[in-house]
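Pilot study result, target chain (215 residues):
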Amino acid sequence: MPRPARTGTFIRLSVLELGGAQVPRTKDFEPAEALDRALDQFWRHGYGATGLDELVHRTRASRYGLYATFGGKRDLFLEALERYSQAVMDPMIGALEDPRASAAEIRGFFDRVLGLIRRFGDRRGCLMCNAAFELGPVDSAAARRVRRHFARVRRLLARALANARREGALSRDVAVPAYADHLLGAAAGAFFFARAGLPLAMIRRFVDSACRALA
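Predicted structure:
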């Protein structure tokens, strides 16, 4: 049976405002909104700890509706990863997409990382990083999405670092490829520390130290 067409755009950062609010279940549901709610559930609780009952409750969909529309829990999670990349990460790294991005845009990226961490008090971290830890070794489809995400961020950081070095904002003694690796690890580490419940002040010091080479 073909899957029903999805309607609605719901391209908005309000996916971040869902929190843990209780929502009633109804027979009919909006697939795009259901995906946002599933994303929030997976982001807060992880893949393994999220059961079908929780997804039915949070998405306002029936079990049949979820399977008919998304194809099951795993497929829904993979779509949630794509949605996370679009709704959360695209705004976070958008300034780095500018070919002229340099040191200021790198610092702005880390400011947004810290802002996202500060915005939530529930230790959700980064869904991509969480998926890497939980599913990376056992789910090749999830691992591919995570690697693609990290490769994109690293590429943008490396280009901005090259610009910074040309502009004199980064010492020529600093190897751009290695420093791009370092900054990518710093971003992931900041989210990991947040997931572990470490203080924001400590995470900020960690990020400031990672960016110290930038003028």
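One observation from the pilot: Residues 27 and 195 are 35 Å apart (CA to CA). A full batch analysis is planned for the follow-on phase.
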